[in-house]
Amino acid sequence: TSFGYKTVPEESKESLVKNVFDSVASSYDLMNDASSLGVHRLWKDTFVSGLKPGRKGAVRCIDVAGGTGDIALRILDHARENYADRESSVEVVDINAQMLKEGFRRFKKTMYHNTPQISFHEANAQALPEAQFTDNTYDLYTIAFGIRNCTSIPAVLKEAHRVLKPGGTFACLEFSKVNNPLLSSLYDQYSFSMIPLLGTILAGDRDSYQYLVESIRKFPSQPDFCKMIQEAGFATGEEHDGGAWTDLWGGIACVHKGVKV
Ligand code: SAM
Fold first, then answer.
1. What is the reported pTM?
2. Which residues make up each annotated binding site?
3. What is the pLDDT of residues 193-243, one digit of tens each?
4. Keyword NADP: yes or no (predicted)?
5. Would you say the CB of residue 28 lies under 6 angstroms from ligand 1?
6. CA 233 to centroid of ligand 1, rounded, Å
7. What is the ipTM of this complex?
8. 92, 69 in Cβ contact below 8 A?
9. CA–CA distances in Å: residue 8 to residues 41, 86, 192, 246, 249
């Protein structure tokens, strides 16, 4: 498939995104490592350990746009390794069955396979089926490198707010805006040329990776995204250590959190 991201109408974005991830599913983990030089692992570690899942007892989590289960695995490992918690659970939700399949295959090699701690569900983050994902159910909602691919960010946030328990935490890890002009220009050069090139070499798929780079550019800045989280009914700010959001690597990535009020 060949497409110019900027000319894609919003309504077809979902099927486009589905195709992108269909085409990258099997090479996704490899590409992630290659394009971020392994740094996405560190960011994911920071993201999950900052949430301290299991610290206050078992938590019921939903990891949306969970893909191959990187965040889910870290949540369960963190809870078990730090708090001997084998009761916490994660429901991985993704719009793309191929990504979920890779995740399922990967969890087969872990101790969580065939336990109530992990499950995989195909669904759209913007419209989680209400019968399956009921109101006021989860203690923790995570979404990592997924929300920028969704057509409507407010729709995703509204659903996150609906399924979380009052007092539950929304946590998002996403590429964001680099604040330092020098770093920003280096990063632009790297991502616009290197990532599509790596996509070609490692995955034989330049267009999909080109799309992923461009979707990062269109994502709202840290304060704008924070405002959207607040508008969805979450409290942000004082209750978190680093303020309303925490930049990673000068804003290449960023963690936003909110508490359902
Ligand atoms: N969270 C995983 C990680 O950090 O490794 C996967 C991130 S991957 C870049 C983005 C994921 O978002 C893909 O698996 C894709 O299928 C999923 N996705 C895109 N749009 C979605 C939507 N509307 N609802 C649910 N998942 C979606």
1. 0.88
2. 68, 94, 124-125
3. 877 787 788 777 778 778 777 888 889 999 999 999 999 999 997 544 456
4. no
5. no
6. 23
7. 0.99
8. yes
9. 31, 44, 19, 32, 31
